[in-house]
Each structure stands twice: as structure tokens, then as C-alpha cells.
Amino acid sequence: MALAHPEGRIETDEIFMGIALLASKLSNDKNCKVGACIVHNEKTIVGVGYNAMPDYRDSEFPFKKNKHNFLECKLTYVCHAELNAIVNKTCCNIRNSTIYVTRHPCNECAKLIVQFGIKSVVYKDNPHEGMNDVLAARRIFDTTGVTVRQYIPRN
Fold first, then answer.
1. Chain-wide mean pLDDT for the chain?
2. Is 82 an annotated catalytic residue?
3. C-beta neighbour count of 17 within 10 angstroms
4. Which end of the chain is less enclosed by CB atoms within 10 A, N or C?
5. What number of CA atoms fall less than 13 Å from residue 16's CA on the CB side?
């Protein structure tokens, strides 16, 4: 939840989405850079991630889509920002945390978010709105009580 600050200070949503946006810049994916930031108790960053190949070995896997060859398609291998933020967490328990993500989570990431007890998702963009993976993610979130909202910049 965003906290209002006196004039001249930015809100917490801006800070944490800013961290997710900065993390996305680390991705080597030329077409889809995604970042995530997990925040505990509305103030403490406990995990940051970006989309990358397993063990961050980006040069050893294809970074392009290939609908005709499963083994040469980036989607087969890429670890999403949410997964990397959860794996890179700095504390054991991220239950009841909020995850800030530059793109709406897919169904696979939604399952991880729920299983780790994250209770709130704040996303910036949803380029796949209406697509099956996002519809499934929303169903997972709705069914399990995870709140989801879009980040709308103040300025």
C-alpha cells in the first residue's frame, strides 16, 4: 500500500516499482526485460530478481522465440523475474509480503507467489491481458485471496 508523503518525497510504491524497473535492466533479453522486488512489512526489500537463464548462464541458452523448435526457444529455459526474486530472497519467510513486478505475472509465477505466501501483487504493465496465462494467473490469485493491482505512477 502506498504511503502519502509530504511534498517533495516519493511514495513507497514508486520506490519499490523503481527497484523492479532497475532490476529489469539487468536482463539480457532484448525484447522482454522484467524485474521484480519483494517487500516485507511494507518497507523492507527481501528479494530482487529479473528474467534470466538458469544460473544466469545467458550465453549458453537461446534468447529468442522459436515456435518450431522447443529446444531452441527461450521460453523453454528462461527463469522469470518473480522466480528469481523468490529464489534470491534474503529471509526465510516471505509470507504476507508484496511483490512488485514490471509485468503481470503468468500462471506459473502465480503458483509460486501463492505457494510462498505472498499476499499482494503490484504490476506495472499487462501486455498479455486477456491471454490464457494471465487469465489463469488471475484465477489463481482470486481463488487464493492474493490481491492484485496495477501500479499507476503519480506523475
1. 93
2. yes
3. 21
4. C
5. 29
Q: Residue 11 corresponds to which cell in the numbers above?
A: 511514495
Task: Name the active-site residue from 14, 60, 82, 108.
Answer: 82
Helix (H, G, I), strand (E, B) or coil at 36: strand
As a whole number of Å, the end-to-end CA separation of the chain is 17
- pLDDT digit string (tens) for 75-115? 999 999 999 999 999 988 999 999 999 999 999 999 999 99
3-state secondary structure labels for all residues of 52-96: ECHHHCHHHCCCCCCCCCHHHCHHHHCECHHHHHHHCCCCCCCCC
- The label of the residue with cell 529471509 reads 91
User: Which residues are CB-neighbours of 145 under 8 A, at least 6 positions away?
Assistant: 119
Task: Classify 142 as helix, strand or coil.
Answer: helix
Alpha-carbon distance 79 to 73, whole Å?
Answer: 13
Q: How confident is the model at residue 1 (pLDDT cuts 50, 70, 90)?
A: very low
* Strand 98-103 relative to strand 35-40, pairing: antiparallel
Are residues 36 and 23 in contact, defined by beta-carbon separation less than 8 angstroms? yes
